[in-house]
Amino acid sequence: MSAPSPAYGALVPYGDPTWYQGLSSPYYKQTHIEFRAKVRDFVEKELMPHVHTWDEEGTYPHDLHKKAYDAGILAAIWPVEYGGTPPPDFDTFHDFILHDELARCGGGGILWAVFLSFGISLPPVINWGTQEMRDRVARRVITGDAIMALAVSEPYAGSDVAGLRTTADLSPCGKFFIVNGEKKFITSGIKATFFTVAVRTGKGKGVSLLLMEKGMPGLTARRMKTQGWLTSNTAYLVFENVKVPVSNLIGKENEGFKYIMYNFNHERFVLATTSNRFARVCLEEAFEYARLRKAFGKTLLEQPVIRQKIGEMSRQVEATHSLLEQVAYQMKSKIPDDRLGGLVALAKVQATKTFEFCAREASQILGGNSCIRGGRGDKVERLYREVRTNAIGGGSEEILLDLAVRLGIKMQATMTKKAKL
Questions:
Q1: Closest CA to 156 of 182, 190, 188
Q2: Is pLDDT above 60 for 1?
Q3: Please, are residues 237 and 221 in contact by the beta-carbon 8 Å criterion?
Q4: pLDDT at residue 201 is higher than 90
Q5: How far is CA 387 from CA 224, 337, 352, in A?
Q6: Whole-angstrom Cα distance, residue 69 to residue 144?
Q7: Mean pLDDT rounded to a whole number for the chain
Q8: Which of 165, 122, 114, 151 is nearest to 236 (CA)?
Q9: % of the chain beyond a pLDDT of 70
Q10: pLDDT per residue as tens digits for the range 80-96
Q11: Which is it for strands 176-186 and 219-223: parallel, antiparallel or unpaired?
């Protein structure tokens, strides 16, 4: 799309990406414009009016999964053969638009509970599971009939996946894995029907992935009380001699670490995209409040110090969005995951730091309203509580910055070697 695009949305300055506000972009075409309108319509009708209530209740109606599927939203990035409903000429920018627009609802809990948790738990089944496993699980999850969760983190192992302690020992008869251990911070774990579980297997205790199901004897889940993402149904799982058929092994034994790593780039891209839109929501809320609120005979927007805050928020949000478009373009161009991992890691850190800054500054501008659950400052209050979850989930800022540098050093050595050949 080389010509300026038609104006779209409320046109709050910097409250939407620049291509919504009359500027040109090389990335988007008509199918992106149409898909954007579809997602925005769903978010404004089915999510925004209810986010606060669902968050306070800590749950949401199960039929939301089906509503989202019927609207062409839930399965927009998934294969047609398993019930996916991708838009015409689907590419990474549809993926980008989907998660950016969904995050306009201003609540991470409902996003992860309904739209995102199966995005990190289902890919191993589709990519490495048996055909029987894919047929049993994929369509039910993609169409909203079943919920799926990824269970990797443990009380003593988070970013350090190599520190996992949950074990899966082969039974004497050779037909089952006997699973024992615990998992912590499992998003959607309370409502999940299926779990993709990382376990220790074999004599060398390598990492493998198992498909486990709700109702297996010995598998229990209890609700965790979280700071943010109150709708996420986050669970603490306990496995006590759970018998799992060996046919539920996802891919090959002891290769689970590779399958987990394969997921990370897209998960971090999604976290970065939603975090930056949450930052935009804070910016938009602050701008609209400053336009109306008067103090010392002027609106807040007429005060230079407030414009300075909004300008700095806008600068960081726009810079981060441009970086995310660059990442999306590289993904669309099929750049290998190992080559792109460092840039994705940097983008995720950039986005969560921008989110944290904008949540703070919006809170300053809204004052006491941003400290009350419900009312004029509801979105900012809720998002401020969710900052740390976004910053830590998918790899903490410290872990990702270190990863980006290490991958950069590795890339330099590889490219230098090739240049000398």
A1: 182
A2: no
A3: yes
A4: yes
A5: 18, 27, 7
A6: 6
A7: 95
A8: 151
A9: 99
A10: 999 999 999 999 999 99
A11: unpaired
More confident residue, 139 or 156: 139
d(CA 212, CA 197): 7
CB atoms within 10 A of CB 407: 19
pLDDT digits (tens, 9 = 90+) for 169-188: 999 999 999 999 999 999 99
Retrieve residue 38's tokens. 């579809």
Q: Which residues contact 92 (CB under 8 A, 6 or more apart)?
A: 328, 329, 331, 332
Inter-residue contact 198 to 207 (CB < 8 Å): yes
Residue 370 has pLDDT above 90, yes or no: yes
* Helix axes of 304-332 and 337-366: crossing angle, nearest 10 degrees: 160
Q: Do the Cβ atoms of 389 and 226 come closer than 8 Å?
A: yes
- The structure tokens listed for 292 are 């109306």
Distance CA 112, CA 93 (A): 20
Whether this model's pTM surpasses 0.70: yes
pLDDT of residue 3: 65
Q: Token pair of 113, please?
A: 């509970």
Residue 26 to residue 28: CA distance in whole angstroms: 6
Please check whether residue 192 is in contact with residue 114, taking contact to mean a CB–CB distance below 8 angstroms. no
272, 348 Cβ separation under 8 angstroms: yes
Q: Are the C-beta atoms of residues 110 and 122 closer than 8 Å to each other? A: no
Expressed in angstroms, the distance from the first to the final Cα of the chain is 40
Q: Which residues pair with 244 in a beta bridge?
A: 177
